[in-house]
Specification:
The longest helix is centred in the N-terminal third of the chain and has 26 residues. The protein is an alpha/beta fold. About 40% of the residues lie in helices and about 20% in strands.
């Protein structure tokens, strides 16, 4: 009996020893996490690598167009999600995303340090990650050379001295154009069309997208067009310095920062429904936490030219010196935008483009 017991013990030990390497190999295989984003998403390779190494994961980014296109694709595929996490829904599309019921709720412990002004979803389906301001940028040299004062308000833009000097983007085809339209609605409320009528009479120029407006129509250093004012971003002056082919001591452009002249955009991340397996869900939660960490938040500004929501994240020197933040940006409640967006765009189109 003792010999039989010794034999069985030895046999089981050998079986265990033979199977252990295979089991270890299987458990050490990285788990894939797919993140759907808009085309403007960017983050340093070493930052993502640190998350992958710490969590034994492989992060795959699925870039799917602009913010609106990404949301549309996610809604259409919600019964068979293409990703585990969605990043890039902003406050202009937030209510639509929540109404579509595409996210699971997750309250990150990192949110305790985030200012309440960024927390627009009390159900914690969408977690704020960054913010930025769509503003009117102007060419400093043009205004100085023509001895022309810089407009200080939206009302100033309708004055004859600024006729034909502003290029804007079509809100039906451009997120920056939509943001500027929303700024005018927040400021003028029901009389916003009167402002646009006056702006049309003052020969405002309309193009389809930001790239055309900034690089073709704008007269700033990155463009050579006839308009010295363009709807762009509060961080664009910093980008002019960073990407200049020759070193610059100062930004050649600046932003108009009067009340309601800029519209604040906040971008969110959410865990998509269908990420229900325990390991996959846990990894998705850790990635949301990671996006709010100092490491990720401090990398974003020079990657996507946005501001971190984490107050402990240090800003790059170029942002401190050249980027501008309005003291009174325009805002609208996400549910108000969702209820009226299509109507506002149609009204604008009927007035301005016809």
């Amino acid at each position: 009996m003792k010999k039989l017991t010794l034999f069985l013990t030895s046999f089981l030990f050998l079986i265990s020893a033979c199977s252990s390497p295979a089991t270890a190999t299987q458990s050490s295989e990285p788990q894939t996490l797919t993140i759907m984003t808009h085309d403007s998403f960017a983050i340093s390779e070493e930052v993502i690598k640190s998350f992958e190494e710490e969590n034994n994961a492989k992060v795959v980014f699925l870039q799917s167009g602009d913010a609106g296109a990404v949301l549309n694709r996610t809604i259409l595929t919600r019964d068979a999600p293409l990703a585990d996490v969605l990043f890039g829904v902003d406050n202009t599309f937030l209510s639509r995303a929540l109404e579509a019921d595409i996210f699971d709720s997750y309250e990150s412990p990192m949110l305790a340090d985030i200012d309440d002004t960024f927390k627009l979803d009390s159900t914690h389906q969408a977690t704020p990650i960054d913010y930025g301001d769509v503003c009117i940028n102007y060419d400093k040299a043009y205004f100085a050379g023509n001895n022309l004062p810089v407009p200080l308000s939206l009302e100033d833009l309708t004055k004859p001295g600024y006729s034909g000097l502003l290029v804007v983007e079509n809100p039906a085809t451009s997120s920056t154009g939509l943001a500027f339209l929303l700024a005018t609605i927040a400021h003028f409320e029901d009389s916003y069309l009167d402002f646009w009528s006056a702006l049309k009479e003052n020969d405002v120029v309309v193009v389809d997208g930001w790239e055309t407006a900034y690089y073709t129509n704008f007269s700033g250093s990155s463009g050579h067009g006839p308009q010295p004012m363009v709807v762009s971003y509060g961080t664009s002056p910093a980008a002019e310095v960073i990407f200049s082919e020759t070193p610059l001591d100062d930004a050649p452009t600046a932003s108009i920062l009067g009340p309601d002249t800029c519209f604040r955009q906040i971008e969110f991340v959410g865990i998509l429904k269908g990420t229900s397996q325990a390991r996959q869900r846990a990894l998705a939660e850790r990635f949301v936490d990671f996006m709010l960490s100092k490491q990720f938040q401090e990398d974003m500004p020079l990657q996507m030219f946005v501001y971190p929501v984490n107050p402990d994240a240090a800003l790059p020197e170029e942002f401190v010196k050249y980027a501008q933040v309005p003291s009174q940006p325009a805002t609208l409640a996400p549910e108000e935008i969702a209820a009226n967006r299509d109507r506002w765009i149609q009204e604008w189109t009927d007035l301005v483009l016809k």
